[in-house]
Write a structure and sequence with these properties.
The complex is a heterodimer. Chain A has a single domain, classed as Arp2/3 complex 21 kDa subunit ARPC3, CATH 1.10.1760.20. Chain A is about 70% helix and about 5% strand. Chain A contains 8 helices and 2 strands, in the order ααββαααααα. Chain A has a two-stranded antiparallel ribbon. The longest helix of chain A is centred in the last third of the chain and has 36 residues. Chain B is mainly α. Chain B has one domain. Helix content of chain B is about 70%, strand content about 5%. Chain B has 11 helices and 2 strands. Classes of the chains: A mainly alpha, B mainly alpha. Chains A and B meet through helix 1, helix 2, strand 1, helix 4 and helix 7 of A and helix 2, helix 5, helix 6, helix 8 and helix 9 of B.
């Protein structure tokens, strides 16, 4: 779900970089407001690498397989480190594997990173009310995973269809929109369930990870 | 998954290898963005010529780029296969029930040329200097310290965590796990696998932080003047900026590019 180089026009890629610069600046500002911001950097960095590696895990969905995105869980666990973490992950993918692109790095970071921040707030809701339970962690884990990937898919499809250098009639555009949205529905469900299972697993094994970085 | 190494030819002695990293970063990134602004077909030809010329100057072997072009983005391939049949009204040829359209073919030409040119310049940027040097150049140009530290630390542990995942997957296969069918068990196993990777990394990060503190992390004097710029670096930067401006100006002067052709 990364837009490669060459698809989007220059002004859109520039706008993507501008938006990414603003969100990164805000995230770094929030991180620097902590008592000892450097203390969390190794934790955030290794979890960034771990999320990057975890995205190589494939789920068999015959006749193909899908790989995990985990931007919802990443937001839930890393908080304000989530956006820089996603930016770094996308940068590695563009430079090492030529997935995504250098000009589209900003747009792709916004597509994946903003929903991660929303997921962070959704996952925090579980702390309100009674004591944290495994069920609440599971429910809000599912919601943060499914909502984050759902928003990412919606942004990806909208940015792509409104900016692709092609003369599509309204009927074709609408058909493409529905096809892409429907094709991604299983991914949204799988991502939600995996985030639920992962959140419950982490609560059972290392609940401290869910307290955030 | 094997990690792609982009700086394996960073020790060659071309003009681009000798170019001061900060100037190179600015010059090539501006050129990449100028390429993304191009919409005119005539400018595409100039873009191909400039890209090939820069690649020849870089002295990077052809195999370096071919290896990376062997698996171009699947997504781009889909766009290339679909666009000529759905975009535009001018039918060039009919293949059974499908109509090949002129506007779609032009759009594909534009997307593919921009993609290949930008990808090539990107590979030159990261292939003609050690990756660490390029990150230091980014830091010197104002990349926040938090981001620079995170990039370097993530990169340092990416290989180790990747190898952990590989070992765990091998162990699973040896114990008889087959991941060919979709089932709730497959989802559970994927979650446990991902969870184990996260827990291991979290624990490792605590030791890493202690080791870093012992080595003076956060208190080391910042090194200044690591990069030295000479007049040749500045002139080369000026040439690249002029080329980039030329592309944007040329695209404007030649009209509204593909948009005009489509009307």
């Amino acid at each position: 779900m990364h837009i490669p180089d060459g698809i989007l026009p220059g002004p859109v890629t520039a706008a993507g970089y501008a938006a990414t610069a603003v969100v990164t600046w805000y995230s770094v500002r929030k991180i620097n407001q902590k008592e000892n911001p450097r203390q969390d950097i190794p934790k955030a960095s290794l979890l960034t690498a771990a999320f990057f590696v975890a995205s190589w895990i494939h789920i068999p969905v015959p006749p193909t397989s899908v790989h995990l995105v985990l931007n919802g869980l990443l937001g839930a666990v890393l908080g304000y480190f989530a956006f820089p973490a996603i930016l770094i992950g996308l940068f590695f993918q563009a430079v090492m594997f030529q997935h995504g692109g250098l000009t589209t790095l900003g747009v792709n970071a916004v597509i994946m990173g903003l929903p991660a921040i929303i997921a962070h707030y959704i996952f925090r809701i579980r702390r309100f009310g009674n004591q944290e339970s495994r069920r609440k962690t599971g429910i809000f884990g599912f919601l943060s995973g499914a909502v984050a990937i759902g928003i990412s898919v919606a942004m990806f499809v909208l940015i792509l269809l409104t900016n692709i250098p092609a003369d599509l009639d309204i009927g074709t555009e609408r058909a493409a929109l529905y096809t892409l949205a429907i094709a991604h529905l299983p991914l949204i469900a799988i991502e939600g369930v995996i985030t639920l299972l992962l959140a419950v697993f982490l609560q059972r094994v290392r609940p401290r990870i869910l307290d955030g970085v | 998954m094997k990690l792609g190494i982009v700086d394996e030819y960073s020790d060659l002695g071309s003009l681009l290898h000798r170019w001061e990293p900060r100037c190179k970063l600015i010059g090539l990134m501006v050129l990449i963005f100028a390429f993304s602004f191009v919409r005119d077909l005539r400018m595409l030809l100039a873009m191909v010529v400039v890209t090939i010329t820069i690649y020849i100057i870089s002295k990077l072997p052809v195999s370096f780029i071919l290896r990376r072009l062997r698996y171009p983005s699947f997504f781009l391939l889909v766009v290339v296969l679909i666009l000529p049949f759905v975009s535009g009204q001018t039918i060039v040829m009919s293949i059974g029930p499908l109509d090949l359209r002129q506007e779609g073919l032009i759009a594909v030409l534009l997307v593919v040329t921009r993609f290949l040119s930008i990808l090539t310049i990107g590979l030159i940027l990261f292939g003609t200097a050690p990756f660490l040097t390029t990150i230091k150049a980014m830091r010197a140009l104002g990349l926040p310290a938090i981001l620079a530290d995170m990039v370097l630390l993530s990169l340092r542990y990416l290989h180790e965590i990747g190898s952990d995942l590989q070992k765990m997957q091998t162990s699973m296969s040896l114990r008889g796990y087959k991941k060919h069918r979709f089932s709730t068990r497959a989802l559970n196993v994927a979650a446990w696998l991902g969870g184990s990777i996260l827990v291991r990394s979290y624990e490792r990060s605590e030791w890493v932080y202690k080791a870093m503190i012992l080595r003076g992390y956060g208190y080391a004097p910042t090194t200044r003047g690591e990069f030295q710029t000479n007049s040749r670096d500045v002139i080369t930067l000026g040439v690249f900026l002029l080329i980039a401006i030329g592309f944007i100006t040329g695209d404007i002067l030649y009209g509204r590019g593909v948009a005009a052709l489509l009307q």
